[in-house]
Amino acid sequence: MANDEKKPEFWSVPSSEMLQKFRTTPEGLTSSESKERLKRYGANILKPKRQSDTFTLLLSQFKSPITIILLFAAGLAFFLHEPTDTIIITIIILISSLLGFWQEKGAADAFEKLLAVVQIRAAVLRDGKEKEIPVEDIVPGDVIILNAGDIIPADCLILDSKDLFVSEATLTGETYPVEKASDVLSAETPLAKRTNSLWMGTSVVSGSGKVLAVSTGKGTEFGKISEKLQLRPPETEFEKGISHFGHFLMEITMLLVIIHLRDQCISGSSDP
After folding, report:
1. First CA to last CA across the chain, in angstroms?
2. Residue 132 near residue 123 (C-beta atoms within 8 A)
3. Pairwise CA distance, residues 164 & 180, whole Å
4. Ordered DSSP codes for 228-259
5. Which residues contact 244 (CB under 8 A, 6 or more apart)?
6. Least confident of 49-53, 110-114, 149-153, 202-206
7. Within its chain, how far is the Cα of 154 from the centroid?
8. Pairwise CA distance, residues 22 & 6, whole Å
9. Which pLDDT band holds residue 177 (cuts at 50, 70, 90)?
10. What CATH class is the domain 10-45+119-227?
């Protein structure tokens, strides 16, 4: 469920107003309220839907026009009792398809391992006491305690900090740690300049801080990126060219087969 209590420009709102908006306090949520919000917002996880299982992924490797032509050629060679040609073409098909399957499956597995980086535990204030909980149980309105080495488990607004430096390389590409502090910024401030905000998937290099969780799960900036990564990227010009060439070869092959069959029929009908 969407974080309907969240303002897109939360970095431009004073922290006291954000606490009121999320109906929480600097001492955090109560255990009962956090359970209700967990049901409302859902778990704080980035778990993409698998687009296909292993078997379906393997079968998809045989859908390209060139592979179809090779399969047709292998079938034709087998029909014409050419075992050597049949074996060679079949081996080429298998090697090509298995390489493609291995690369796609490896990319999917690597993506899942990348998302597992944020599956950690975090220190939050519940019932006025500091408590460690699984990161997936964090909800909007939670007050999180951060220290050096922690992975930030949600998009947050800083309530209080001390010498807080954060590495945002995973999100913005900035190689140097960024100093963070409680402040109110302009609504037009770009993401890389929002020094009063923290982002899911980034990490604390030094210092400490108390922050308010504003967005969790797929509502975070990291979550939006992961959603885009799950979409199939558009075909490159090279891939389009290969596809068009494959369809062209299919058309030529079918045309040659039709002509060959027609010639055989003509020659057969002209025999006495």
Report:
1. 79
2. yes
3. 5
4. HHHSPPPPPHHHHHHHHHHHHHHHHHHHHHHH
5. none
6. 49-53
7. 16
8. 8
9. very high
10. mainly beta
